[in-house]
Each structure stands twice: as C-alpha cells, then as structure tokens.
Amino acid sequence: MRKILIILSLLTLNIYSIGIPDRYPSCNYVLREFDIEETYAYEPQFEEFVAKNESKFQRFYKNSVKRGKDYMPMFSDLLVKDGLSHLFVYLSMTESGFQANAKSNKQAAGLWQFMSATAQRFGLRVDKNVDERYDPLASTEAAMKYIQTLYKDFGKWYLVMMSYNCGEGRVARAIKRAGTDDFTTLMDEKAKYIPAETRRYLKKIILLSMMGEKIVESDTPENIEIKKEIIDGKVLVNITGGTNLMDFAKLIDMKLNEFFDLNPYLTDYKVSEDISIIQVMIPAEKYPLYKESYSPPTLQEIFKKKHYSNLVSHVVTKTDTLKTIARKYKATPIDLIIANQLSSEKLRVGKLLVVPVTQEQFESMIKY
Q: 251-279, pLDDT tens digit by residue?
C-alpha cells in the first residue's frame, strides 16, 4: 500500500507540473531571453519547484506589483534603452519585492539590493549624508552597468543572474569545477556547483518572469486594467541638485510627509549638490504645477550664489564623469549641466566643456 501511495503521489506531481508551458505561454520566450534551453521547462527539479512554490510566488508577485507599479515602467524603459531585456525588472522584484527602503541582513540595500562596496564600484554615492542605493533612477542605472559588466565577463544572461546573487568568483569556480557553463549542469541539486540559495534565486526569477509576461500578453479586461494602474496616478519628474525639498513640496502644493512617502529613498530635506539631477515621484494631478512653477537655477543665479566669476574650458577624457570634473574644479555636477546645457550626464570623449570657477581658483590656475 505504501508503494502505491508513493507512486500515486509522484504521478500527481508529474501531471501537475508537465503543463508549465501551457499555463505560462511566455515560458519559452522567458527561457530564451535568459539564454536557457527551452527544455528546462520539463526538468523534474524545476517542475517540482513550480509545483511547491507557485501559489506562494503568485501572492508575492501580486504584492510586488502593487508596491512597484510606479517603478516597473521606468525600469523596463531604462533596461530596453540600455540594450538589456526588460525581463531584468524581475531580478529587482526578486531582490527587493519593490520595497524602496529594503535592507537585508547582509546590509544590501534598495530596490536592486546593492552592497555598499558594489554600489560605489558602479558610481553610487554611499555615505552618512547620501545613500543612492535607495534612489530608484540612480540605483537602476548602476544595476544596468553591473549587469553589462557581468555579461562581458560571462557571455550568458543566466550566468549574469547567478553572479549577481552569489558573486563573480563563486560562479567562475563553479564553472571550473563542473567543466562547463551549461545551465542545467550548474543548477543540478545533487552536484551543488552553485549555492542552494542561488539555484532557488534563478528559479524564482524565471517563474516570476513567466507570471509577469503572462499578464502583459493577456488581453482580458482585468489585465488591461492592471496595466493601466501601473502607469497612471503618479509621474516621475526631474529635480536638480541643491533643491530644497520643503520648498519643492510647497511649490507643487503637496504635504512634505506625503512627498517623502512617495520617495522613501530621500534621506534629507535637501538634494545634495553632488547630485546633478534625480527623479522623484509626484501625484499626476500635481504635474501641471510642477511644469508651471519648478525650474532649475539659471547660470546667472549660480554665479551669484557661489561667487563664480569666470568660465574655463575642459576637454573630456575617457575616465571623466560629471562628478570627477566638478570635483576637480570645486564645482558641482548641476553647475556643469546648466553651463553647458547638457541633456544627460553622459559625456563624449573629446567634448569641450565650460566650467564655472571662482576668481581665486581662476588665478591659481593661471599661475600653473
């Protein structure tokens, strides 16, 4: 009798699991996007994982979408513009559940769960005054740089996700031990080439991606309403470094505590002048006031406030960023953006920039 029960249990599991591609029409698309063979959908280990966790992750997905409805469109747009699959939005979902102020026991923080050292490696400011890991735009741009760097090192998207979770060195050693970088081999539960946490992490991203893409591809009225909710209600707007947030909230007729509730990554009442431009969330009905009332300072206002007296030229080199150039001349990134009427922080090597400096700095430069 015991043998019969075991056999029936296994048959029930297989009957339930074999329909993964049928239940998730985007299954093959998701696997291809991550460089995984489509046959992985029929791997017993993955089938078992889905059977055991599907209901739990459906709840997790639903709650994450509610929290991340203001982030998902922005993340997807940025990823695609950077040449990445929009499916990496589910990596962020897996990391943080779209909780903007998320912090792990290992001190990883933000929507992309950066450790401090990794965040700084990819250009985020992390100190007692500013922690850009909590800035949705800045952290997403850093995550994209990290993902692109990992892809250059490993050449396959599933290896990128593994490395994001357990580190490049761990994945490199796993490939060496296995003698291959084949996905199914590395994910083998018995061989344990990569940590159990990372194996589960990859399966979770795949399953959440299939759930999400199933909704995106559906034309039912219910799901059309979900898509509408994701993009309506709130908008992202640009504000410049040095902006006083109390004044900004008053300007758009918004309570300060409501503004901070929408932007929990902001940790001070003033945007640091070391930051050029950041994006903040405001209610859509406040957007006309923002357009009408908010504008960055003019070059004349900056000159007067900071006692600049001259403009000097600087030719952009390969290692230059707005921050490093500004630091060199004791200016700020927003000063350079306004002085040069830049539309983004990206700089072209060889471009000639003008930099505002004080009379004292100007005279010291002439001496040398």
A: 999 999 989 888 776 777 888 776 666 77
Find the mean pLDDT for residues 174-199: 95
Q: Assign 3-class secondary structure to the chain.
A: CHHHHHHHHHHHHHHHHCCHHHHCCCHHHHHHHCCCCHHHHHCHHHHHHHHHHHHHHHHHHHHHHHHHCCCHHHHHHHHHHCCCCHHHHHHHHHHHCCCCCCECCCCCECCCCECHHHHHHCCCCECCCCEHHHCHHHHHHHHHHHHHHHHHHHCCHHHHHHHHHHCHHHHHHHHHHHCCCCHHHHCCCCCCCCCHHHHHHHHHHHHHHHHHHHHHHCCCHHHHHHHHHHHCCEEEEEEECCCEHHHHHHHCCCCHHHHHHHCCCCCCCECCCCCCEEEEEEEHHHHHHHHHHCCCCCHHHHHHHHCEEEEEEEECCCCCCHHHHHHHCCCCHHHHHHHHCCCCCCCCCCCEEEEEEEHHHHHHHHHC
Domains and CATH numbers, the chain: 2-227 (1.10.530.10), 233-293 (3.10.350.10), 302-358 (3.10.350.10)
What pLDDT shows up at residue 36?
95
Separation of CA 286 from chain center: 25
**Residues whose CB falls within 8 Å of the CB of residue 218, separated by 6 or more in sequence, listed in order:** none
Question: For 302-355, what is each residue's pLDDT tens digit?
Answer: 777 778 888 888 899 988 888 888 888 888 887 888 788 776 677 888 888 888
Of the candidates 279, 282, 342, the one whose C-alpha atom is nearest the C-alpha of residue 137 is: 279
Q: What are phi and psi of 140, to 5 degrees?
A: -65, -40
Strand partners, 296: none
pTM assigned to the model = 0.61
Is residue 268 within 8 Å of 130, Cβ to Cβ?
A: yes
Query: Which range among 21-25, 37-41, 342-346 shows the weakest confidence by mean pLDDT?
Result: 342-346
**Count of other CB atoms within 10 angstroms of residue 255:** 10
End-to-end CA distance of the chain: 93
